[in-house]
């Protein structure tokens, strides 16, 4: 059985898939060599199955949205870049399509899955990738956790230039590195929490937040059922109408 340290490693990687070994070791309170040993074990045992590179659909000349639907049906399509499958009641989808096809995609979702519990269509900022950004993304696809030095070597550019470009893209949400995790083998839980407002009590465990005028969906990582039960009770106390679902599987991909 994996211990609390292993679960903390996965939690921080879910928050920031490109966090450095040095920073992660310091956050958890172990040596870098111990951290490397643990991460290798998590990979060998199939708990961490790899890392995916998410590219903001706006950089691919596409619009995107997040929607939560009752999970009486499932929707699978090349237009789905993110999906959280929940044990009961609803699934959360991230979908993307070219600008001229976006409205039709949303209509198709409504026809297939019914009325959504939540719809969040962020302000779109479609733009063309700059040539050096495209080269960086291609290098990241080969190894999403490669160091700026290694990325610079592959691109034939300076380390400083690559580091600055990467940090800018990460801070703007243009790209994100996300681990693919076998939650059942880790013996940890991810909760999808739908509420009418934002609560600071989710901050210590939140790995993703999607908000709209209709409400907020928080994706939170908790180490065990006891902690999950405590969080659920606090959420219900703050918002009696909130819904908390156990995520059984999550998938993240990029159309790039």
Automatic annotation (TrEMBL):
InterPro entries: ArsR-like_HTH, AsnC-type_HTH_dom, Tscrpt_reg_AsnC-like, WH-like_DNA-bd_sf, WH_DNA-bd_sf. It comes from the Archaea. It holds the Pfam family HTH_24. Residues 1-63 form the HTH asnC-type domain. One of its GO terms (molecular function) is sequence-specific DNA binding. One of its GO terms (cellular component) is cytosol. Keywords: DNA-binding, Transcription, Transcription regulation. This is AsnC family transcriptional regulator. It comes from Metallosphaera cuprina (strain Ar-4).
